[in-house]
Amino acid sequence: MGGDWDLCFSTHLQVWNYKLRRCLFTLLGHLDYIRTVSFHSEHPWIVSASDDQTIRIWNWQSRTCVSVLTGHNHYVMCALFHPKDDLVSHSSSPLRRVTNSGIPRLLAVG
C-alpha cells in the first residue's frame, strides 16, 4: 500500500486516503472498539485487535475478513504481523503477556 493511506476506526475499520481526506472503504466485523491495526509488509492483509476479544485478519484488496482468531478472555490490546514468519503476535492481558498464534491458513488466501 502506498504512503497516501491512513486509518481511522472505532468498531468499524476504515481505510482512508489522507491526502484526499476521504474514506476509501470500511471493513465491518468487530463488535466492540478496535484497539490496534497493522498492515502486512508483503501481503494485502490488515490485522486488527479489538475489545470484542478477537483478532481479525482482513484482505484489503477483496475487502473481506479472511480469519478470526478467538479464545481471549479479555480485550485484545495489540496485534502485529511477524516480519518474517506467518505469525501474529498479540497481547490481551492487562499485564501485557505476549504469545504467538500461527496463521498458516492465510497463505492459501493471498
How would you describe this structure to a colleague?
- The chain has a domain at 35-109: Thrombin, subunit H, CATH 2.40.10.
- The chain has one helix spanning 106-109; strands spanning 5-9, 13-17, 22-27, 34-39, 45-50, 55-59, 64-69, 78-81, 87-91, 98-102.
- The longest helix has 4 residues, at 106-109.
- By secondary structure, the chain is mostly beta strands.
- 4% of the residues lie in helices and 48% in strands.
- It is globular, with a radius of gyration of 13 Å.
In short:
By secondary structure, this protein is mostly beta strands. The chain has one helix at residues 106-109; strands at residues 5-9, 13-17, 22-27, 34-39, 45-50, 55-59, 64-69, 78-81, 87-91, 98-102. It starts with a strand and ends with a helix.
Q: What structural class results from the helix and strand content? A: mainly beta
Extended strand count: 10
Largest sheet: 4 strands, antiparallel
Broad CATH class of the domain at 35-109: Mainly Beta
Across the major sheet, the strand order is 4-5-6-7
Discrete helix count: 1
Beta-strand portion reads over 45%
> Which regions are unreliable across 5 or more consecutive residues at pLDDT < 50?
94-110
Helix content: under 10%
Helices and strands, in N-to-C order?
EEEEEEEEEEH
Gyration radius over CA? 13 Å
Distance between the termini: 15 Å
Say what oligomer this is: single chain
CATH architecture of the domain at 35-109: Beta Barrel
